[in-house]
Amino acid sequence: MIPDDDPSRSLTVADPDDPGTTYISLVGNTYAMLVTGEQTDGRYCLIDMRVPDGGGPPPHRHDFEEMFTILEGEIEFTFRGEKHTVRAGSTVNIPANAPHNFRNASGAPARMLCMCTPAGQDEYFTRIGDVVAGKDAPPPQLSEDELAERRRRAAELASAYRSEFL
User: Fold this and answer.
1) Would you place residue 117 in the very low, low, confident or very high pLDDT band (cuts 50, 70, 90)?
2) Considering only CA atoms, which of 122, 146, 154 is closest in space to residue 24?
3) Which of 98, 95, 105, 48 is CA-nearest to residue 75?
4) How far is residue 16 from each of residues 34, 92, 121, measured CA to CA in Å?
5) What angle do CA 55, 77, 113 make, to 5 degrees?
6) Of 6, 58, 139, 142, which residue is least crowded by CB atoms under 10 Å?
């Protein structure tokens, strides 16, 4: 049986150009938090990822599903050690617990949507990255000490957000 409607939850319209959108600079990428776990009662989150040439996270894994839809450009995904080049219009699903990472090795900017289910990755990124003014804002110029602090914080919080760096 389907539960009754929960009127305390509202419609969410995600627009990356909305001035209320939070943008996070992380590992050289800019992530727009389009739909947060808070808005979906923890069911999923949706992140608009702008990945410059050379951008992408280190190898990692986590115990939740992660799906990427490439909107612009192309991204090289490494999944269980095997590389796959994925172009605009395609969608990739990373199963929970599988080692993976992605990198933009195309020579041009790329953009993709990332959905994680359940949510949590949105909160993790917000806690370890730096808020920037918008999608085209340059990443902050961090000192070596500040970079080391970001890496320490990411490693320290990873297990709380069900992730592991490899």
Assistant:
1) very high
2) 122
3) 105
4) 6, 21, 18
5) 70
6) 6
What confidence tier does 155 reach under pLDDT thresholds 50, 70, 90? very high
According to DSSP, the residues that pair with 163 across neighbouring strands are: 62
Task: Check residue 98 and give its pLDDT.
Answer: 98
**Per-residue pLDDT for 99 more than 90?**
yes
CA distance 58 to 21: 26
pTM for this prediction: 0.95
Q: Is 113 helix (H, G, I), strand (E, B) or coil?
A: strand
Helix (H) or strand (E) holding 126: helix 121-128
Quote the pLDDT of residue 94.
98
